[in-house]
Structure formats: C-alpha cells, structure tokens
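Structure in, sequence out. Go:
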C-alpha cells in the first residue's frame, strides 16, 4: 500500500484525498500515513523537529511512541489473548466493603447485587474490546464514529482517571507485561485473608432488610458496583489495538470477560464478607469490636489489618504492604488511557507525546488522591456513581449507533477517522448526551443532591440511586430519534 507523506493535521487530514484535506493547516507532526490512515511506528522519529527528537529519545528506552494514530495491520502482531484477560484483571475489595457501613445492606442482598450488576457492567467492556483488533484504533478515537469529531473532545475531557507513572510511561507492551503477573501476589494474599477470616469465625450473616430503605440501599450500592465494573468501557479497545485483525471477536470478548468477572466477584464478595464482622453499639453507634475499631481508624487498610495482624504479625504487615502496592496494577491502565484521551482533544494535544501526558496525569492524580484520603468512602462512592452516569450515557449513544445506524462492524470506514466532514456531525450525540445528564440528575441520590425520582425510591433522607439506568434510557431513546433526523439531513 502506498505511503502518503503528510504534515499530519489531526483536525483536517483526510486519507481519502478530498478537497478538505488539501486545505489542511501544517502541523508540527510530520508523519507518514498510508491510504487507510494507519501510521507506521518508525515514522514518529522521522525528521529534525522537536517532536521527532523527543520520540527518538523515547525510542532508545523502549517507550511506546504511538499515541492515538491508527495501528497498521502489519504491526498488529500481539497474538496473546491471555494478556487481554490479565490486562483487565482487577477487583475492588473496597467496593464490597461499602455495602455494610455505607449502604446498610444484609449479606445475601449485597451478594446478589454484586453478582448481577457486575455481569451487567462488564458486558459493554467486553464488547468494545473487540473493536481494537478490527480497526486498530483507540476507544476515544473510535468514539468519533459515535459522537462525531468535535463532540468526542468533550467525551475526552469528561474521562476522569488515576494512575501510576513509572509503568504507564513505557506504554502498551510494558503495561500488558506488568499486568500479566501483578495480579498473582494480590490473589495469594486475598486467599490468605479469606482463609484466616473463615478460621476466625467472625463472619455474620447479616439479615436482609425490607421496605424503602432496603430498596434505596440496594439501588445505590448497585450504582457503585456498576460504575466500577463498567469503568473500562471508555478505553476498552486501547489494549487490543495490537491484536491481529484476524483474531476471533468471540475469543477477545471471552478472555476480557474472564479477566473481569472473576477478580471482581472474588474481591468484592470477600470485602463484603469481612465487612459483616464489624459491629457497632446500637445506641451510640460507636465501634464495638476490633474490626469496626480498625475500620474507623484506618478505613479499608484498617479492616484488612484486623484480619491479618493478630495472627500473622510482621508477615501480616508485609501482606498489607503488598496489597497497597497492588493499587499500581489498577491505576496503570487508567493513566495510560488518560494520555490517549487528552490527545483526542486537538492538534496541539496530539503534538505532545503520550508519555508526557502520562506524567502530567500522574501529578493531577496525586493532587486529587492526597486530599481525598481522609474521606475515602465518600470519595469512592461519589466517584463510582458519577463514573456510572457518564459511561451509561456513553453506552446509550455508542450501542445504538453501532447496531442500528451502522448495522455492525461492516458499517465503519476506519480510514476516515481524521476527517471531520465524513464523520457524524455529532449534533445528535450532544443532544442525547444532555438528555442522558437530565436522566442521571432525575435519578441520582448523592450526598449533595437527590433527584426527584431517586427521592421517591428510598427514604426521603437518602433516596435510592437510579441515575445510571435512567441516564442510559434517556440517552438511548433520544439518540435514536435525533440520529434519524441527523442522518436524513446530513447523510452521514
């Protein structure tokens, strides 16, 4: 396939050679793109510009140079599907713990919520992970086919993530390699926690409550579980773009599903079980045993310490340190994808190499995380709920575009991913996004606001959060209507 030498302008370059492309404004990104818009890896270091010199320096240390540019088919050589599973192999002990002290749920109702909401939440993640091998495009770039070119910038801004710099700076291959093994010590320690907790006999089968408070608690907890489970959706394809186009979509879906469902269920259910051991004085609500005391003192780490420290001593402390370090594995994919999402925002952001955005993202992450430490449960709950709202809207727009308006994978032309005039105008997506926000506001039950629908489900004081299903429904229905009109008007 012939190569086109181009001063690559992400805002106006068209691989189809239209007159719009001929009017492009020269950019500081000298890149060789082929006729499908794919950019060979070696082209990033060509030339004497500052960008090229930085990329050559990065290449000496095996730092991934590619950002949001499309991966050519001959460079999609990562055939290890097991790595797709281990890449997303992350759970959350803390989410399970929230069921008891925050949402006041019993054991069985919380357990069933964890099971079914995780099954629901990971399904879009598994589906969108199959897009990477087919198109060789990152998830936020694929979003241009759903939201249009300009509206995707808004989607990129909305993504909130946290991460770890020293691993994610090096890119796709190092992140995959690290994630392939990082789950093993955490899994072993969680097995130790499980064994010791069972041996302690401290588990309490908390009874299921009834009435409005139970309904509100279950729905609000479900929203937090959903937010964590579906959290990969907006960057699902980022970690499969180097998979061959010929790889089975069913296998990609399956390995992603395996990598998500088992650690999510195991860690959240374990967190729930350990949380049942906490007891509080019925009159003063003061902690009345070691589990509740340690939780009040040090939150999730204190609860784990209550399980590990008395019987294991120094080894228990070592286990807790390893678990603390395991957060790196959860954060790596987030901060890696933040760099890609920032590059989507415009020509100037793409001119900054991905690994520099990784560093900046890490600084922002620290600025958010350090003040939030002392309010961990509140921060985690609110973050998961807001994440669930945003991703429910994203899914409510992307899924009907894929299945109804594009008719499946055959309806895409990946070569136009840099051509705003050939992509959807994005008017329908923006309108549907606003409707989705309206649905989320109507159904949310946050500390700072309870929507009119959310207030009617639970108790008047706390409500019940149905923000994410309403956000999805409002976005889905409105998008189908607006997109029909948009296609009739613009023909794209």
């Amino acid at each position: 396939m012939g190569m086109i030498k181009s001063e690559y302008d992400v805002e106006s370059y068209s691989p189809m050679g239209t007159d719009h492309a001929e009017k492009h404004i020269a950019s500081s990104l000298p890149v060789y793109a082929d006729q499908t818009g794919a950019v060979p890896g070696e082209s990033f270091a060509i030339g004497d510009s500052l960008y090229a010199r930085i990329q050559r320096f990065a290449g000496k240390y095996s730092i991934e140079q590619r950002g949001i540019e499309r991966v050519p088919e001959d460079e999609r050589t990562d055939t290890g599907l097991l790595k797709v599973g281990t890449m997303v192999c992350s759970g959350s002990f803390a989410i399970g713990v929230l069921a008891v002290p925050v949402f006041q749920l019993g054991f069985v109702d919380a357990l069933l919520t964890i099971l079914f909401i995780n099954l629901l939440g990971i399904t879009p993640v598994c589906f969108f992970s199959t897009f990477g091998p087919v198109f060789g495009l990152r998830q936020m770039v694929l979003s241009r086919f759903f939201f249009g070119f300009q509206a995707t910038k808004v989607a990129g801004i909305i993504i909130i993530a946290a991460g770890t710099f020293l691993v994610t700076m090096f890119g796709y291959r190092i992140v995959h390699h690290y994630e392939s093994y990082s789950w093993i010590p955490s899994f072993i320690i969680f097995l130790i926690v499980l064994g010791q907790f069972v041996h302690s006999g401290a588990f309490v089968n908390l009874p299921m409550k009834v009435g409005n408070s139970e309904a509100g608690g279950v729905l609000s907890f479900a929203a937090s579980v959903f937010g964590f489970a579906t959290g990969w959706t907006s960057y699902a394809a980022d970690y499969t773009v180097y998979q061959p186009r010929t790889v089975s979509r069913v296998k990609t879906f399956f390995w992603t599903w395996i990598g998500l469902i088992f650690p999510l269920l195991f860690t959240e259910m374990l967190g729930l079980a350990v949380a049942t051991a906490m007891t509080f004085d019925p009159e003063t609500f003061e902690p009345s045993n070691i589990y509740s005391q340690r939780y009040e003192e040090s939150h999730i780490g204190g609860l784990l310490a209550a399980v590990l420290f008395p019987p294991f001593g120094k080894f228990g402390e070592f286990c807790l340190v390893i678990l603390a370090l395991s957060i790196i594995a959860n954060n790596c994919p987030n901060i890696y994808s933040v760099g890609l999402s920032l590059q989507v925002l415009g020509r100037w952001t793409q001119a900054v190499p991905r690994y520099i955005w990784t560093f900046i993202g890490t600084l922002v992450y620290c600025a958010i995380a350090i003040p939030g430490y002392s309010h961990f449960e509140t921060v985690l709950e609110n973050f998961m709920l807001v994440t669930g709202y945003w991703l429910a809207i994203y899914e409510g727009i992307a899924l009907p575009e894929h299945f109804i308006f594009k008719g499946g994978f055959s309806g895409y032309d990946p070569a136009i991913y840099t051509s705003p005039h050939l992509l959807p105008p994005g008017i329908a997506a923006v309108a549907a996004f606003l409707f989705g926000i309206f649905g989320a506001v109507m159904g949310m039950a946050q500390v700072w606001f309870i929507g009119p629908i959310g207030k009617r489900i639970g108790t008047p004081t706390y409500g019940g959060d149905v923000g994410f299903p309403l956000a999805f429904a409002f976005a889905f229905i409105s998008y189908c209507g607006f997109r029909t009109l948009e296609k009739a008007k613009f023909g794209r």
